[in-house]
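Reopening closed ticket. The problem is back. First fold of the pair:
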Amino acid sequence: INHEDQFPMHERVGAVITVVVACENGKRLVAVQVGDTRAYLFSEGELIQLCYDEDNVAFLIQQGVLSETDGARIMDVLNRYDGVNPPEAEGSITINGQPFELYMAWRWFLVGNSALGIPGANIVLNALGIDPDVPTPQISRIEVSEGDRLLLCSDGVYKNISDDEIIAGLDKGGDTALGLVEAALKRSQDTSNKRRAPDDISALVV
């Protein structure tokens, strides 16, 4: 991409991508993801993320610092957090063999924690154009029904608005993609909101 192989590794800028193909006469979706753009299926009021993010949580799981179960619990809290009201975060998780209360630990995956080796939330493990031999994309398959909606969005959408807010936006009529983008943009400009994340914001709803 953009002749990235002409630059040293630390100067290369890659691209993230999510592609979804409808197959079997529209009965099934195949999603392919590299990086941290997301694809969701919204079906019967449920929001289903089609591929895992390749972010700081995934990085620590790959390194063996965090279990997949604890990583899923952290992502559940982060996806529900509205930036104002502390989410429910009961129990504990283990990071590099040390137990921590979840009500404290989930915040470190927003801002990072250098003492524990947790990078900030903006890390992306895989991208196109960095190394010609990688990455291996994630692939997900899911059946769809009449009335389901597919949402493709950049991280500027889901980092600024919670899963509940995305569901509320998809439930509305009219141009739901525009509504989600406007909600994310408004949140990104709200300096009082701790979920605020200035970033590229784009969404497509099918």
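Second fold of the pair, where the issue appears:
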Amino acid sequence: MIQVHLSQSKKVTTKSSTLVLFVQEKNKKFNVMGASRELAGFVSNLEADGVQFADLKKGLLFRNNTASEFKNILVVGRGPEKDKETFRRLAATIYQSLKTNKLFESAIHIEGLGASGKTAGDVVEALTEGLLLTAYEFKDYKTKPKDDKATPKKEDTFNIHLLVDGSLNSAQVKKGFETGETLAETVNFVRRLGDQPGNMMTPEVLADETAKAAKGSGLKVTIWNKEKIKKERMGGLYGVSLGSDVDPRFIIMEYNGAAKSKAPVVFVGKGLTFDSGGISIKPSGGMEEMIYDMCGGANVIGTLLAIARLKLKVNAIGLVPSTENMPGPLANKPGDILTARNGKTVEVYNTDAEGRLILMDALSYASELKPAAIFDAATLTGAMVVALGNSYTGFFTRNQKLVKTIQTAADAAGEWVWPMPINDHHLEDMKGLHADLCNISSSKGAGSSTAAAFLEQFVEKDIPWAHFDIAGTAWHVGNRVPYCPRKGASGVMVRTFVELAKNYA
């Protein structure tokens, strides 16, 4: 467990705590940031004794320090960057070092990160977020060891104190701290949704967990069952669900933080709680990872929770079509034709291209809401992993103004995105033989672009829209992002979507 504490004081009460110091290279020397003269001298003496600070990605720990009231000193290197993503990554370094060395009480002077009146809130926000995100673990189904009555065991908690100079703007610092907590808690919540095994995370459970999490947040949650989905002419979602004994759900989350007359921004997320591929069954190797096919939906749920808890002055709606894709007796067959909510017909040539079939209904419904913009997130194509690996999320839109808006939002959130091509050639490849469209391309290559072109057909032309393919970034990104689990859901795009929502406030 971890607890992050905010204190506008330079003291901590414990006598066994660890102080985190930051050093920065300048003119081939290392300057200690935000430390007392004694501690600066301590580090200088270490450097003179030949201690190398050039590579401090893991931090350098000195135990039993006598240069201050702190028992230990953890020295961490920092570069010249002062953006929030740098601080999140520094927070990961700090927490991992504290955990490795079992240092349960520690303090960080944020002045060591160059915090000033204008930036103190951002520094506190990013550190808080980075620490809480790094500490996330999924152990719901690990057997806990039986307590030894002779020596009772308790779960150790890492208490990390962010020490802030009292002269800094206290309201700004407090807001930064609360924002960091909220964003980290919502991201960790959707990570836990994504990490749940398929037998524990069905569409019904996803809907119930959404309703439970939304209580007291100001969100209105409406859940459609299988009968309602059929009645509402959602032929894609209903059709894909027929292969499973588990019923589908359509989750609607509504937040009103602005005047009712103001058009909402709508977020749509693919909620496939397990994807076997259906009749076009997937190879068995790695199929267990298809529990993560609902991460787009989970991350949209997290986005709406964050927007509501941050009380943004915007109207926002989240839509999550959720089902399993299984090869049951009533499952879609290659060659079947489904009818979307907007009336367009689709030939199903490959039942493993099901995400676009459930999204087409959700995007049609989103268009009916006359929104200011629509953004969808989905683990949609393996082609995206081939193109961008697990570093960048690819996004698709023909709206060049929206490209700039998205890039600005992603930069502010510290998430990497990359604009991908979409044009009429991609749409031509998705035309059907006996129906309006086909769910896979008639030509080879550009699988992510053709999938985006398919989705585009269910968004009204005058509505700004962008599709985010998170197939490469929704899980297993810890080798790229140190505050994400090495294995497991990442919660990608929640921060970027929150930043996008601010544009419509």
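Update: turned out to be a display glitch only; the data is intact. The chain has a mean pLDDT of 92. The first strand starts at residue 2 and ends at 7. Please close again.
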